[in-house]
Amino acid sequence: MGWAIEGSFVMGIAALVVYLYYLRKGQFDRSEEVKYIVFREDEDA
User: Fold this and answer.
1) pLDDT band for position 43 (50/70/90)?
2) Mean pLDDT of the chain
3) Residues 21, 15: Cα–Cα separation, whole Å
4) 3-state secondary structure the chain
5) Rounded distance between C-alpha atoms, residue 7 and residue 37, angstroms
6) Contact 5, 13 (CB under 8 A)
7) Could you give the CA distance from residue 26 to residue 24 in angstroms, rounded to a whole number?
8) Under 8 Å between Cβ of 25 and 19
9) What is the pLDDT of residue 44?
10) d(C-alpha 45, C-alpha 27), whole Å
11) pLDDT of 20-35, one tens digit each?
């Protein structure tokens, strides 16, 4: 049973590392603008 707790802790740390990596890369900078991209593509066509 101890392996389950350790495994979940490792998975949580891994998820945090991935989140921080993409946060530094700028993935979440323009989150509101993404939903309007579909409308802009339709207007161009």
Assistant:
1) low
2) 84
3) 10
4) CHHHHHHHHHHHHHHHHHHHHHHHHCCCCCCCHHHHHHHHHHHHC
5) 39
6) no
7) 5
8) no
9) 54
10) 27
11) 999 999 887 877 777 7
